[in-house]
Amino acid sequence: ADLDDVLTQFVQSEFDNLVLSDPSVRQVAQGPTLLKGRLQLLTSLLERGDHPELLEAFTTLYMSSVASLSWSVVSKWMGRFGLYMLAIVDSTQQDTFKAIFRVSIGVLTRLPPAELESEHMASWLTSVVAFFTSTTNPVWFGQLPWSTQLEAVALLHHLPTYPPAFLRTLAACCKAEIVSVDAKSFVLDIVSDQLHKLDRGALLSFYMSTLFAQGNELLCPQVCRLLSGLNFGSSLSSILAPTLAKQSVEDNAVALVMAFVVCLKSNAKGSGGEKQRTPDVLKTHLVASFVKVLVTPQLEAAYSTLVYEGMRYCNGVFLDVATQLVAETNLAGLLQLLRESSLRKVVASYHAELVDVIAGIPTTHADDKRLLVNELKLVVLQEFLDIKVEMRHLTLGQAELDVPENKQPSPQPERAISRLHDSIVPYSDEVVVDNGLPY
To answer: Which domain of life does the UniProt lineage start with (predicted)?
Structure first.
C-alpha cells in the first residue's frame, strides 16, 4: 500500500509538471513509447485502488495537450476506463465515481466523430449500459448516493448513440424506488432531448413505464408534458389506449387522468361549442378514472381542475361522467359538476341531455332531484344572460356608453338571477314539472 501511494504521488507529480512545461518538452515526453508506459502505470494503479486525484491530474494533462495526443490512444484508454468503472466495489466512493463521469464527459465532448464510432468507444458504451443495468455486480447506478446519481445521469446527455435496448434499461432505472426522483426527472429530460436518436415506439414505452411505476406520482406531470410534446395528434389516443386500458383505476387514478387529458388535448378539434363524443377507444377507463377523482375527497381537492380541463377539451366526457355519477347515485358529485363555473358553457350545451339524465334519478331521491333541476335551470339562465350581454356589447360597442340620462337602464343579470334564487325552494314538497317529465 505504501509503495502504491509513493507511485501515485510520483505519477501525479509528473503529470502536473508536464502540464506546466514548455509545449516542445511536453511533446517529446508524450511520445508513443513514453505515453504507453504512463498509461500502463496509470491503469495498474487504478486497478489496485481508488485514486480520483490521479485521474484529475491525467485529465488536466490530456486537456492541455489535445493537439499533440493521438485520439486513437485516447479512445483505447476510454475502452479500458469503462471497465474500471464497473470494477469499483464500493458504491460510497463518491469522489471516484464523480471523477469518472467528469473525465468521460470531457473526453466525449472533444473526441472527433470518427473516434466516437470506433470499437474502443463501442466497448466503453457497453460498459456504460451495464453500469445502468440493475443486475450488474458489484455496483450499479441505483446504488450510488443520490447526489452522485445526478452526476451519472449527466453522462447520458453526451452519449454518441443510444443502443436499441438502452431505453428499456433506463425505464427499469426510472421504475426503481432506490433511484431518486430528481435523477429520474433528469433522465426524462435528457431522453426527451435525444429524440433524433430514438425509436418513437420505444420512447412511448419508456414514458408509459415511468408514468405508471409505483412511487412516481411526482413525475406524472412531467411525463405527460413530454407525451404532449411528441405531437402525435389524434392518433395518440389510439396508440395509448391498449396500455391505458390495462392499468388499475384504483391504483393509478391520477396517472390515468393525466394521460387521458393529454389524449383529449391531442384530439381536440378547436374551441367551438359543438358537441364532441368521448373517443370510443378511451371511454370506459377514462370515465371511471374521472369519476374516481371526483368522488374521492383527497383526489378531488388536488386534481378536480384537471378533470374539468379534460372536459373542456372534449365536452362529451362531461355528459358521460354525469351519467355515471347518476348511475352510482352520487348526486352530490353531479351537483358539483353543475356548479363548476369553468364548465358553464358545457352544461348549457348538454341541457336537454342532462334533463333526461336527471329524469332517471329514482323518486327515493326526490329532494336531491329537485335541487339538481333548479341548479340546471340556474346555470342555463346564467349562460343565456351572459350570451345576451356579450351580444349587446358586440352590437352596440362604444355607443353603449352614450345612453341618455333619462333612459331607464336595462335590468342587470345579477338582479334577475337573484329573483330566480328567491323563487327556488330546493327541498320543498312541491313537484316540479319540466318538459312533461315529473321530478
So the answer is: Eukaryota
